[in-house]
Amino acid sequence: MKPNDAHFKAEKPVHHRAIWISDIHLGTSGCKAEYLLDFLKWNESDTLYLVGDIIDGWQLKKGWYWKQSHNDVVQKILRRARKGTRVVYIAGNHDEVVRQFIGMAFGDIEIADDATHHLLDGRRLWITHGDLFDGIIQHAKWLAYLGDSLYTIILKLNSYCNHIRNRFGLSYWSLSQYLKHKVKNAVSFIT
User: Fold this and answer.
1) Residue 139 — pLDDT band, cuts 50, 70, 90?
2) What average pLDDT does the segment 139-143 reach?
3) Residue 143 pLDDT greater than 80, yes or no
4) Alpha carbon of 145 to those of 83, 93, 138: distances in Å?
5) 81 has which bridge partners?
6) pTM of the model
7) CA 99, CA 164: separation in Å to the nearest integer?
8) If you average pLDDT over each of 53-57, 119-123, 133-137, which comes out highest?
9) Which of 52, 87, 99, 129 could form a disulfide bond with 109, CB atoms 3.0-4.6 angstroms apart?
């Protein structure tokens, strides 16, 4: 349809009181920044909570990977903050370097260790990334780094696997999600 067509109706973004986004891992090849950009195009909010692992500092220390779409995500979030959306950045384990700036604001983005969101019915939600409750992150960080490296390898295998599945007309399947589920079950059993 053409914009001047009588049936054309311009769609507007849906407005929400709050949106929570976490574990984007900008700076990694597995990041799906294009999907996030599409989501942000069609969804706006009064408050945007960035709940950890937005930028993957662990991977960026190993090697620089930064696509234009990653930059576009940062620019879109900064633009939202400039236009009046309250943006709260809560650090996670992969972007823990941000924790040194808690209580500060950069480009109208508040840096916090945690936050409280008030629902319309009066209930309160405590917002934190959750790595503070992860025993491996707190007591065996080397194991977390090892797991992260293995996860990166699995993501590459996943991409290859799904390329082959696609050739056979099969739908997307997440090797990383499958293995993560199996490891979590094993850890729960051992615990």
Assistant:
1) low
2) 63
3) no
4) 38, 10, 12
5) none
6) 0.71
7) 41
8) 119-123
9) 87
